[in-house]
Amino acid sequence: MQRFKGQQVFNSLMKLAVDASHVVGLRMMKLVRGGKQARREAELMVTEKIDAAFEAGTRLLAGASGDEIVRRYRRRVAANAKRLKRTRRRRK
To answer: How many domains in the chain?
Structure first.
């Protein structure tokens, strides 16, 4: 059965929400530890949000679809999850 484009975007958004929730949890664990790494993570989190919003707006103006933008966000979120998991393992 062929999916509608709206369904595809909805599914991508739901996956993004789950992935982002996981990253929020990983970041919270890092922030709770405090110290220099927590401060750096907080700064990185804010600058990433600004950069991602700017990129999404630019891509929309250039004609990108909503699905393309969500896919790009998901790649960024996946990269953050990978980085945060890696730093978490090193501290154990």
So the answer is: 1
**pTM, 2 dp:** 0.80
Enclosing domain of residue 60: 46-92
Closest CA to 83 of 42, 26, 32: 26
Lookup: tokens for 86? 């890696």
Of the candidates 41, 45, 43, the residue with the CA atom closest to the CA atom of residue 30: 41
Stretch 15-24: mean pLDDT, rounded? 95
Residues 22-61: tens digit of each pLDDT: 999 999 999 999 999 999 999 999 999 999 999 999 999 9
